Amino acid sequence: MAEIKTGIFAKNVQKRLSRAQEKVLQKLGKADETKDEQFEQCVQNFKRQETEGSRLQREMKAYLTAVKGMQQASMNLTESLHEVYEPDWYGKDDVMTIGKSCDALWEDFHQKLVDSSLITLDTYLAQFPDIKNRVAKRSRKLIDYDSARHHLETLQAGTIRNERKISKAEEEFQKAQKVFDELNVDLQEELPSLWESRVGFYVNTFKNITNLESKFHREIAMLCHKLYEVMTKLGEQHSDKMFTIQGAPSDSGPLRLARTPSPTEDESPPGSPEAAPNHTLRPTSPGPPRPKSPSQLKKGPPVPPPPKVTPTKELHQEQIINLFDDNFVPEISVTVPAQVSANHLPMPIPSVVIEPASSNEGDDDRDGDITSPSGVSDNGVTPESQTTAPGLPPGFLYKVEVLHDFEAANSDELDLKRGDLVLVVPTELAEDQDAGWLTGLKEADWLQQGSSAQKGLFPENFTQRLE
Predict the structure, then answer these.
(1) Could you confirm whether domain 391-466 is CATH 2.30.30.40?
(2) More confident site: 319 or 63
(3) Keyword Oxidoreductase on this protein (predicted)?
(4) Are 275 and 442 in contact (CB under 8 A)?
């Protein structure tokens, strides 16, 4: 038994030495090397395909890990909602049912991704190691083939012919050629076929992923909409219970914006050092909260229903007022609409002050709240927005002024800029109106194009109604 193992070991060592010697001769140019450029290209494609498949597998596992994390985060959020939701609140049972359905959807989504995508990907990549080993074996057998061929050629070209050695060399050469041809023929067929199969595999994999994602998001969106309706009804039932910021100074009420006269342009030109903001703090009567963002401008319940898209790109960090810092001096500017005709006199630029409301004063000071720049100016000149239009669109309700830029995300929405005037008409779908959307036409387009002017949706909380 030991002699057999010793013989096999010696044979393997002899093969390695022979291959190493052949490689050295080929690199030195003393022996020619058999090459197949077409097969080498197939090998390069195989390596690329394996690398791409391995990365896809790695990213797929990371994606599933993220889905699992989102599943756990969703469950934790649902549990926290169930804990804070009082038994006597509206829709307690509905909230519990929706939460359980969301958890089940996340679990089903993750499991189907594993079954239809990850397992298929693992099966696809499982064939690469075997083919890779066979490609390496072919390379070794090619060296054996070249070595046997060179040995036979050397014996045949010798001055003294030894028929016995030549006959043995021919047998070894034929044996090496047969082994090499068997591997080579199989790989010549499998590698191109494997390379072409990658297209169908990628198509099926990503079709499964996108189909599962689409179905999951569609179903989870329905549950979220149901929860949104429950929260809306709960807010309507408790509309008298306003949200207050804990920790605010007890001697000051909610902040509001008020307008005070500002110096004209003749007194202090823009950009001059003397042009300081006219900001003061003084107690006033209770007023509405300062509009921190477009989503808070709409009057109504404590949490008004937001529109489908709530752009906030016009909000800057310096506009966020710290309610707890007594030394904070905000920089707030109010711009007037540019739609003033040539025969109108220029309006003075209003300045803004922030006033903490006091609960011990009456309601007589509510006139100090935000008023639209389109109102009547001090000199009695009426802005263009208040003039009577030559004609109004059918079903005209009222006119609004745009306070924030709005970029349309769909074809049925209007592109609006701050200062635009919009003629509001009835909304066709009650769902859009309930969600905080209005339908209208830009006044400038109506005056120019008439009935052909574009009519579309826009968020109500981005506008201010003009009386």
Answers:
(1) yes
(2) 63
(3) no
(4) no
